[in-house]
Specification:
With 400 residues, the chain is of the alpha+beta class. It contains 17 helices and 10 strands. The chain has helices spanning 3-7, 12-23, 43-51, 64-67, 78-81, 92-107, 111-129, 138-142, 144-153, 158-173, 178-198, 204-210, 217-248, 250-253, 263-273, 306-310, 342-359; strands at 26-32, 35-40, 56-57, 134-136, 279-285, 289-291, 294-296, 301-305, 364-365, 387-389. It has a 5-stranded mixed β-sheet. A 3-stranded antiparallel β-sheet has the order 4-10-9. Strand 6 (289-291) and strand 7 (294-296) form a beta hairpin. Helix 13 packs across helix 15. The chain is globular. The protein starts with a helix and ends in an 11-residue tail after the last strand.
Length: 400
């Protein structure tokens, strides 16, 4: 099965269940014509490969198909799967060295100040379309909020944030324009680094320049790339999927009318059902081994099937609905490479959802739920559009 066919299905869980029925918890999939990998569908198997970096490496220089020329240097897969001089491409002590600046950068974020900034961004965006009585909660809102919020942490302005956003769409799409998008993305970050070398500021870009663990501008740029790309695409998807859930699932739709389940419950349920990174690249076997009854050869690529693992019958309730407050999902991965920015990601997503629910309490999805379309990507699960209708109202942006 082409991996793109699974993430693009109306319900990816059905595609993953079909793979599990045929293969078990480790399935053979196609990443691109002639390029194959193992998709890890099992919850326990996924924990195994994320926790045993001495067997399953994050370093793409161990990818046999890349080294043997099966994967072209011009492959559209490389912006997501190729090696980079950053925390995602390292194991062991090297990973810990590169991870420390990210952990410290997240720790220095002022949560209250960040929440106020996100609220201000959200209110200003809603004020821009509130009098129309209709909007697209993806293109007018969910894609913009995290980019502007995260870009500001690095000292980037809104224009630079919008340019980064366009580049990231290409990177995560893994289509023919992915390498051009990646090049443009890195050019913007390189310009920001050069500016901060000359004019330091109280932002994460300057913090990375000054951190002793980051030895050169390539490592600084790649560390910025990790935080901005993962945070922007991940929070955009998370916010969009939670809003879709609130607008289409009766249990959560009642939240807008004083129901028992809250926004955090919707955020958690979205991570169980449709984690933003449905499939995460990748691990590379350092030796012949066995996983889920399959023989894994040295150099094989293994894709983390996060959505499939969340739906594993070993942990999934019979009705497929998680208990409120249950955060045993793998949406943030696991092991040494677990997401370092879960707290600020939730802060942005929760604030974005709460703000639009508060300011537009009667909004309704303007199309049937089954007509929601998805951005093509083998990795992420992001709606193209969430058109909504609501009572027109004049909402003042902060400062008016």
């Amino acid at each position: 099965m082409p991996l793109l066919a699974a993430t693009g299905a109306p319900d990816p869980r059905e595609a993953y269940r079909a793979l599990r029925a045929r293969w078990g918890n480790v399935a053979r999939v196609e990443l691109a014509p002639g390029v194959h990998a193992w998709l890890v569908l099992g919850y326990r198997e996924l924990l195994t490969i994320t926790r045993q970096e001495q067997i399953y490496s994050r370093d793409a220089r161990n990818w046999r198909d890349l080294n043997d020329g099966v994967v072209s240097p011009r492959s559209r897969l490389l912006p997501m799967m190729g090696w980079r001089a950053n925390v995602l491409g390292a194991d062991g002590a090297e990973h810990r060295r590169l991870r420390q600046p990210l952990d410290e950068g997240v720790a220095r974020i002022d949560q209250r100040r960040a929440r106020r900034q996100v609220e201000s961004v959200c209110t200003e965006l809603i004020a821009g379309f509130s009098q129309r009585g209709l909007a697209d909660l993806v293109t007018d809102y969910a894609t913009i909020v995290p980019m502007l919020s995260i870009a500001s942490l690095f000292g980037l302005n809104s224009d630079e944030g919008q340019r980064l956003l366009g580049s990231l769409v290409a990177v995560f799409g893994s289509a023919d324009d992915s390498q051009d998008g990646n090049r443009h993305f890195e050019e913007i970050l390189g310009d920001a680094l050069r500016q901060r070398h000359s004019n330091p500021a109280d932002d994460l870009t300057t913090s990375f320049i000054n951190h002793p663990n980051l030895r050169n501008d390539e490592e600084r740029l790649q560390s910025m790339a990790v935080m901005i790309s993962a945070g922007t695409e991940g929070v955009n998807a998370w916010t969009s999927l939670a809003l879709r859930l609130l607008l289409t699932d009766p249990r959560f739709a009642a939240r807008m009318h004083g129901g028992r389940l809250g926004v955090d419950d919707a955020l958690d349920e979205a991570l169980w059902r449709d984690p933003p990174m449905n499939n995460q690249p990748a691990r590379y076997a350092l030796a012949d081994t066995e996983l889920g009854g399959r023989l894994i050869r040295r150099g094989d690529a293994l894709i983390l099937g996060i959505a499939a693992a969340n739906d594993d019958p070993v942990i999934r309730p019979d009705d497929g609905v998680s208990e409120p407050g249950n955060r045993a999902h793998l949406a943030f991965s696991a092991g040494p490479h677990v997401c370092p920015a879960q707290v600020p990601a939730r802060l942005i997503a929760r604030t974005a959802v709460n703000t639009v629910l508060h300011l537009l309490p009667d909004m309704k999805l303007a199309i049937p739920a089954e007509e929601v379309a998805w951005h093509p990507s083998p990795w992420t699960r992001v709606p193209k559009s969430l058109p909504v209708e609501f009572s027109p109202a004049r909402i003042a942006a902060r400062g008016e």
